[in-house]
Design the sequence.
């Protein structure tokens, strides 16, 4: 985790040292907020860049150069005569803590227009919508809605179709009491939103499905009548939370009628 935090600080400092007409602040490990001169802001996710540096395919300097070029283009487009074009075909659903959602919409006071478009998932989690660019992920905010003429509910339906089109396979691994579900995506947690998948998937688990989404890329499943599974999944949650830059929840949920209900067992 220390390496992620240091990488995030180093990138923020390097970007701030450039004359980009943007101010960058660290929001968390691998998460920056870019603030414009007009007070608008957007999130910058560094996860893929960190992985590239860790694998040796890029240096930190290359990441900064690539990010600077992309961010300047985004900033210039947003300052143009026309509003930025939102590619709705690239919107995907991303689960975020409600605390993150509320904090993302405020800076020196509440700014409702800058609050990410979202729908409630649980008491502590919400569904947001991210536009995946080639190099930068940008979250849909309230003031974007008139331009695309969509409601939050319509964004969910559209983003789920986009998300499903990106999934080559949904793989289930592990057993016999606990399984990991993956779509080979950075947002595996969003698989809990695919009601059709949960209706047809067959896992050798006793009772109702109990799921955990401790991090954006982690989805774990056991059964209500799997005591060893419930114990194991609780331990796996703590491991995932200690090793992620994007924590979600330490709670267990029942998958019931396509909805997440907090598990009290």
Sequence:
């Amino acid at each position: 985790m220390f390496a992620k935090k240091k990488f995030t600080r180093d990138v923020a400092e390097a970007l701030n040292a450039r004359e980009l007409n943007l101010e960058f602040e660290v929001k968390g490990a691998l998460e920056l907020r870019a603030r414009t001169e007009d007070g608008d802001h957007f999130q910058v996710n560094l996860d893929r860049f960190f992985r590239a540096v860790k694998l040796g395919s890029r240096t930190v300097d290359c990441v900064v150069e690539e990010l600077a070029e992309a961010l300047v283009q985004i900033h210039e487009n947003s300052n143009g005569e026309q509003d930025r074009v939102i590619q709705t075909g690239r919107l995907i659903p991303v689960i975020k803590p409600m605390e993150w959602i509320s904090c993302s919409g405020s800076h020196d006071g509440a700014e409702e227009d800058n609050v990410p478009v979202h729908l409630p998932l649980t008491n502590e989690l919400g569904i947001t919508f991210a536009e995946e660019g080639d190099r930068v992920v940008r979250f849909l905010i309230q003031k974007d809605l008139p331009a695309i003429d969509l409601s939050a509910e319509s964004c969910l339906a559209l983003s789920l179709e986009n998300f499903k089109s990106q999934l080559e396979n949904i793989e289930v691994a592990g057993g016999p009491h606990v399984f990991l579900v993956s779509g080979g995506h950075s947002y595996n947690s969003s698989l809990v939103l695919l009601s059709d998948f949960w209706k047809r998937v067959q896992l050798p688990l006793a009772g109702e499905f109990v799921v955990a989404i401790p991090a954006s890329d982690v989805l774990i499943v056991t059964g209500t009548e799997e005591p060893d599974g419930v114990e194991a999944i609780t331990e796996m949650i703590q491991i995932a939370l200690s090793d992620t830059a994007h924590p979600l929840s330490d709670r267990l949920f029942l998958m019931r009628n396509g909805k997440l209900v907090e598990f009290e067992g």
Notes: Helices lie at 2-16, 47-55, 60-78, 98-104, 145-148, 152-166, 195-200, 227-242. Residues 2-162 form one domain. The two ends are 31 Å apart (CA to CA). The chain has a mean pLDDT of 85.
